[in-house]
C-alpha cells in the first residue's frame, strides 16, 4: 500500500467519527479541532505541489486516450479500453486535484484546495465512491479524499481493482501514472491492483473488505477452487521467497537464484511478470552480481531493470536516468557506494 495510507485512514476515521458524535459541528469546526498542517513533500515523493493544484485537473501526456469512463455492473464507474492496449503502454498520466500531506491530513487545507477547484471538478470529486460516508448523512469530503499516497486523481481513481490486474499505477515526481501490465482487448475493463500480490484468496478478500469495503469478484477470486488453491500456493511462495532474498545477500549467487525463481513464479499465475516486480528484483540481481564482480550478469540484469523502469517511471524519470547510467557503465554503481 501507499506510504502514509494507514495514518491517513486513521485520521479520516477519527474525523468522520467526530462528525457523527458532534452533528452540530460544521466540517470547518471539525477541521479546526483536528488542526493539521499541509507540508510540501520532498522532491519526487509525489506529495502536494502548489503548481500541480493550479493545473488543469486531468493532465495527460497520452494524446489518443485509450480509455473511457463508463458504468461497470456492480462496481459503479470504471475504465474501459476503447482499443487494444499493449503491455507496456502508458494509459494515462495525471496530476492530482487534491493532495494531503503524508502521514497526517490537514482537512482545512484540503477544503481550501477543494474550494479553489472549478464546480465541475468538485462535482466529479464528490461523485467518487466514498466508503467513509456516514450513514444517512450523504458524502463527505473527509471520506472522499481517498487514493494512493493520499492524493486524488480523477481518472486513475476510476480504475477498479482486480487481483489479476492488467494495469498498474504509481507515482513519479508528483504525478500518477497508469500503465498496461498485460495486454488489454478493446472493450475490456482496465483494472489495477489495490493490495499486495502475495496474498491468498481469503487474505485478499479480507484485506479488500477491511480497507475498501467491497467483496472482490475478479477472475482470480472467482476461478475454480482447485485452480484457486494452486494459485494461492504460488502467491504465498512468491511472498516467502521475496522475504528470503535479503537474508541471502552475503551469498550473492544464491540470492540471484532466488530472484530468478521469484520471477518465474509470476508467470505460473498465467500473466506476465508485473513491471514493478521486474524493476525491483532485476535491480537487486544487478547489485548482487556486481558485488561478485560478475560484470556480464550485472549488465544483463540492469538492462532488464532499465527496460522495465521506462514503463513504470517513464524515460525522463530520475530512476530511469540513473539506471541508464548503469547500463552504460555498470561499475559506476560502485562509485555511488554499493551497499547490499
Ligand atoms: Zn479478486
UniProtKB/TrEMBL annotation:
It comes from the Eukaryota. Residues 65-195 form the SET domain. This is Histone-lysine N-methyltransferase set5. InterPro entries: SET_dom (IPR001214), SET_dom_sf (IPR046341), SET_domain_protein (IPR053185), TPR-like_helical_dom_sf (IPR011990). SUPFAM superfamilies: SET domain. Residues 1-62 are annotated as: Disordered. Residues 31-43 have a biased composition (Basic and acidic residues).
Amino acid at each position: 500500500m501507499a506510504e502514509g495510507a494507514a495514518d491517513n485512514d486513521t485520521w479520516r476515521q477519527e474525523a468522520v467519527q467526530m462528525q457523527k458524535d458532534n452533528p452540530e459541528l460544521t466540517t470547518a469546526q471539525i477541521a479546526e479541532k483536528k488542526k493539521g498542517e499541509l507540508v510540501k513533500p520532498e522532491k519526487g515523493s509525489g506529495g502536494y505541489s502548489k503548481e500541480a493544484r493550479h493545473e488543469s485537473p486531468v493532465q495527460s501526456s497520452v494524446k489518443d486516450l485509450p480509455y473511457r469512463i463508463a458504468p461497470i455492473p456492480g462496481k459503479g464507474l470504471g475504465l474501459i479500453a476503447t482499443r487494444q492496449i499493449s503491455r507496456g503502454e502508458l494509459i494515462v498520466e495525471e496530476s492530482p486535484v487534491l493532495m494531503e500531506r503524508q502521514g497526517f491530513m490537514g482537512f482545512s487545507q484540503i477544503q481550501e484546495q477543494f474550494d479553489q477547484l472549478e464546480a465541475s471538478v468538485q462535482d466529479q470529486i464528490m461523485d467518487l465512491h466514498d466508503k467513509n460516508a456516514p450513514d444517512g448523512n450523504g458524502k463527505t469530503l473527509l471520506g472522499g479524499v481517498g487514493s494512493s499516497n493520499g492524493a486524488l486523481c480523477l481518472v486513475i481513481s476510476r480504475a477498479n481493482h482486480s487481483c489479476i490486474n492488467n494495469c498498474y499505477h504509481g507515482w513519479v515526481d508528483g504525478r500518477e501514472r497508469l500503465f498496461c501490465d498485460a495486454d488489454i482487448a478493446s472493450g475490456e475493463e482496465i483494472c489495477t491492483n489495490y493490495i499486495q500480490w502475495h496474498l491468498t484468496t481469503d487474505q485478499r478478500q479480507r484485506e479488500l473488505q477491511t480497507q475498501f469495503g467491497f467483496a472482490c469478484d475478479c477472475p482470480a477470486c472467482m476461478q475454480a477452487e482447485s485452480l484457486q488453491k494452486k494459485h494461492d500456493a504460488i502467491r504465498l511462495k512468491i511472498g516467502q521467497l521475496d522475504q528470503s532474498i535479503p537474508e541471502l545477500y552475503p551469498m550473492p549467487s544464491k540470492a540471484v537464484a532466488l530472484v530468478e525463481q521469484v520471477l518465474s513464479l509470476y508467470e505460473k499465475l498465467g500473466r506476465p511478470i508485473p513491471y514493478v516486480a521486474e524493476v525491483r528484483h532485476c535491480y537487486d540481481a544487478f547489485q548482487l552480481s556486481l558485488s561478485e564482480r560478475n560484470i556480464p550478469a550485472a549488465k544483463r540484469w540492469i538492462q532488464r531493470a532499465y527496460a522495465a523502469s521506462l514503463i513504470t517511471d517513464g524515460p525522463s524519470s530520475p530512476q530511469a536516468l540513473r539506471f541508464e547510467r548503469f547500463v552504460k557503465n555498470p561499475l559506476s554503481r560502485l562509485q555511488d557506494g554499493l551497499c547490499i
